[in-house]
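User: Design a sequence. Structure:
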């Protein structure tokens, strides 16, 4: 493994290479998000949420037109909000849609 190689060659001391160390495995336990960061990220979070929702709903509407079903924007907004809010307790990344993946998967069936 690369970590064994790094330790064996003493790259940290010889060349000043940062070594990550031990990486925990498994799922992280749920934890309350750090509320003190809210004031620092609030404006950026709102902008990201608006762009993310816009991308998600536009992709959903494209597929709805193509495949003959309807999309409820309010339901999509609630779903994204719940996923991201609940995910914040598990320190996950925020979700939206992936245009390239969605298009590739849709075209393959």
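Assistant: Done.
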């Amino acid at each position: 493994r690369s970590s064994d190689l790094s330790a064996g060659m003493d790259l940290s001391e010889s060349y000043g290479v940062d070594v990550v160390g031990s990486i925990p495995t498994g799922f992280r336990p749920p934890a309350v998000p750090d509320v003190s960061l809210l004031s620092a990220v609030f404006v950026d979070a709102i902008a990201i949420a608006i762009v993310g929702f816009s991308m998600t709903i536009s992709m959903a509407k494209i597929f709805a037109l193509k495949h003959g079903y309807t999309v409820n924007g309010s339901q999509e907004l609630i779903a994204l909000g719940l996923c991201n809010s609940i995910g914040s307790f598990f320190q996950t990344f925020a979700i939206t849609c992936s245009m390239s993946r969605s298009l590739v998967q849709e075209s393959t069936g």
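Residues 38-67 form the longest helix (30 residues). The CA atoms of residues 38 and 45 lie 9 Å apart.
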